[in-house]
Design brief:
single chain; 20 helices; globular
Length: 573
Amino acid sequence: MATQKHGLARGLTNYGDMDFSLYLRRANAASMGYGRDPLSKPVIGIADTASGFNNCHRHVPEMIEAVKRGVLMTGGLPIVFPTISLGETFLNPTSMMYRNLMSMDSEEMIQAQPMDAAVMIGGCDKTLPAQLMGAANANIPIISLITGPQLTGHSEGERLGACTDCRRFWGKFRAGEIDQAGIDKIESRLVTTAGTCAVMGTASTMACITEALGMALPGTAAIPATHADRLRASEASGAQAVVLASSDKDNSLIPNRIITPKSVENALRVLLAIGGSTNAIIHLTAVAGRLGIPIPLTQLNILSDETPVLIDLKPTGEHYMEDLFKAGGLGVVLRELKHLLNLDCMTVTGQTLGERLEVEPEYVDRTVVRSLDDPIQPMGGLVALFGSLAPKGAILKRSAADPKLFETEGRAVVFSSLEDLSLRIDDPALDVEENDILILQNAGPKSDAAMPEAGYLPIPKKLARAGVKDMVRISDARMSGTAYGTIVLHVTPEAAVGGPLALVKNGDRIKISVKNRSLDLLISEEEMQNRLKKLHIKSPPKYHRGYKKLYYDTVLQADGGCDFDFLRDPSLL
Ligand code: FES
């Protein structure tokens, strides 16, 4: 009896007598009301990420009911288990700090508990990447079930969606274009339904990437959170999990058969074609890194040159995720990119990507998804820059930036930390002009701030009020996927570990060239070395215990996906 290796008999608790362990486990399961028959079925774990601190997952309980229905219909036993949930705006210092913790929680709970397959429900920014990182090494099939985007709201005839419009109106408020009553009214209209941010921010980007990787059912990335199709997708995910759980061990579609170098390349193509979030390159690097798949930023540049931006969604364009859904969903983008994709990649349906695209519906709304020969932009949304200021690279979302600033040389105006930034950015005496380059130091993964989405430095109030809308801004921080502007991020190595960003002084000249993919601090090598010798590296915050100690002891730079060194495949270290 105890040799049974599926369902409840997987991974028995060890008391030194395995028959006893199974008997005891069944007795405890029976206390939850299960009869012997259901306990003999394939067990499908359902990762529950509902939380009172995660508005984007407000509808997860309803999705879980639909998943359970799909599992039961197909002959499995659904068992729900909780994991950490990361509500983007509710975590201090950043949700990013806890992404790796959630990945560990997800990985360990999948492994430690007896399930034959799992459906992992995620959506808000860091949750899908954390779950994919945790799933990567699982030895059971996993299906990602995406929570879906919010619907847009309205105010005085204007359509609003988090969070590009959050930033747009905050910029107007700072510039004095709207008053306190106006911004209060906008605040109450920005987020009006369950689901993730309504634009192509990090959550939507990761949803599209998850579908492109083959880890979610086809057509599920863009379904609005509140749409009945979202529940149908949940039901179908539960049903498909039972199918996958029932396949024999040798043919089991475990994640490492789906997340491969070829599917990762497909995901990068999609990231570029959707004008996706800069955060996604860090997350995808971390997910792929768990399986020893490298993503050099030079590869990103090659793919970026060949892959046009096809969709017209904020923050790059005009539309919202619900419009992408109505326009045909991510499948349309995949169909347009077909000749650039690796079509033999396997997906959780058991079909290859190519087989999926053969039956993809024809319909498309060309105002939202453009054709390959009439793209929004001829090249991909992201580009990596290298040079004396960023020897290991930095990222610019060129699709959301002002092309007039792509070839720029300017004077550095330096802020040494987030505190310094908030103290001085609006000081009327700040020596800053429109053509200067704003620099933020000490906001990378090892800084006290733990790499917040602070790379979208505000335009100094006095310039904003004079009508300046964009400036080149450079930092080792990240940026919300919903933000826009000529913003260079993820400068690696970061200032807190003595990277060249730490050496920049007020008045230095900095040169950015998107054409040449370069980012340089225009001082001599000798001066660079002199400054390096005198540099006082502010050591990372010291924690003697707990998760924060683990974080600061082991977190990698952006080019390592900000994963922990002991979680990344050793071949990449
Ligand atoms: Fe959850 Fe934006 S706050 S996706």
